[in-house]
Amino acid sequence: MLNSSQAPTYAPAPPHVLIVGGGLAGLAAATALAGHDVRISVIESRPRLGGRASSFVDPATGESVDNCQHVTMTCCTNLTDFCRRVNIHELFRREEAIVFLSPEGRISRLRAGLLPAPFHLAGSFLRANYLRWSEKLRVAYGLACLRSSRDDRPGESFADWLLRHGQTIRTINLYWATVLVSALNERLEQMDVGHARKIFIDGFLRNRAGFQMEIPLVPLGELYGTRLETWLRDHDVTVRLTTGVRAVKMDSEGEIRGVTLRSGESIDADFVVMAVPFDRVRALLPDDLLAKLPALTSLDVLQASPITGVHLWFDRSVCPFDHVVTVGRLIQWVFNHTAIQGRSATGEGGEYLQLVISASYDLLALDKAAILDAVMKELAEIWPATREATLVRSWVVTEHGATFAVRPGVEAHRPLQRTPIDGLFLAGDWTDTGWPATMEGAVRSGYRTAEGILEDLGRPTALVAPDLATEPMAGWLLGLNADRGQAGDSQTRDRPTSSRLGSPAARASGSAGPVGRA
Ligand SMILES: Cc1cc2nc3c(=O)[nH]c(=O)nc-3n(C[C@H](O)[C@H](O)[C@H](O)COP(=O)(O)OP(=O)(O)OC[C@H]3O[C@@H](n4cnc5c(N)ncnc54)[C@H](O)[C@@H]3O)c2cc1C
User: Fold this and answer.
1) Of all atoms in ligand 1, which is nearest to the CA of residue 67?
2) Per-residue pLDDT for 361 more than 60?
């Protein structure tokens, strides 16, 4: 017979966190929780990870083609942190300058000069040749007004705000739309003013490096797909692809118990993270659960905004740039994948270009042939060499629900990651992060969710990376807290504590609460 000191002791099984959705939000939550003594599963309905930031295989060539070019900026500190965490950060190239091509074909480069922020881009801006001197003064006046929200009007679009602050149709089309439509994937006529302000302050004014663009050197399917899958499996995270979740499971007492798959299989879990797009969440929650989540009725108000990507493979080189912003045109941005990723159409000499058209509402009524026709006409105007070149093949990909639309007042409709239901969290670029629909917003939401779960487990851990530091002169002139960069933005510190593990004392002893049932 064993005495008490010899009796086997059974450590409780680690709590199970089940993440529905393998986009960047779900992936960020999973990678941040790895190594924290929790069992993690990622359930993804598609055959690959990466969600909207992924690639498809061209059946004609077997080549990986991104659904659309994805770029990030240095101010996206959490995406950077995520990429470092999973060892893919070296697969990006940082650009010190952004090239702009005026409608007349003149080139301007936006790069930081010697002046401190917020004036580091002033020299480039003054040299920009797509605006006249009087227009530059007008834009400078607009930027000075934009730094403060004092005279914002509720519900006002950014286009109306610009008109109210001395901007002309030319400054709006050539400057403000050029910067913001691709950054926020929305037209100025239906864009939230606060989001426009955030792009300028965080991206262009707060810190010298914030505006620098980072471009992937490999297809998205490798970056956030196969590489992530390997990392997760190496870190004991269960990844199930081609596995759709049908509904979140609750018990008779209203406790979260896991999920039911479309196949009918049931998986138990202590925490469920809904990291699916905003228009999918409600359908996965049972009615009695939805009744306890009135904040989610707001999701009906969110709308989607489209992006069109056009992939063109030419038999020869036609584009003299690695990437270029084409000012005042239908095509907004051209990325030369032969130059950036070493990919070509026909071996030596061929060129693979990817064109991006954000907020492509006007293209929704057109078929692919008409869109191709329109962009080929523009390219011929921009680079006459395309007239002589042979288009070897092409893809036109319009993502109708590319991002949630940053319409005026949108922030009021974005729910927090922590829900009032113990064990149920939301993650996704559409949740309340203050960021527009970006990879950065998605990763922040995943980190916040992971922080919330660890806090519920009695192991509070700061995961959200600080913003880039606000440089002193920028802080003073823009009225920003100069040390903002030192502080993370964890929501868990100022949110009510979940009762999932009972009282703090119970959490410390690990003796109470539903997590114990795992
Ligand atoms: C064309 C395009 C261009 C873009 N360009 C940029 C850019 O340049 N820079 C940038 O920062 N951002 C860009 N974005 C936005 C960026 O891709 C998104 O903000 C980010 O990827 C969103 O991640 P997410 O995890 O929130 O959502 P998603 O990526 O949508 O992930 C949700 C996942 O949930 C899965 N899912 C849904 N339902 C279920 C279910 N029932 N069961 C299991 N799984 C389910 C989906 O398959 C998906 O994989 C772009 C987006 C698009 C579409």
Assistant:
1) 1
2) yes
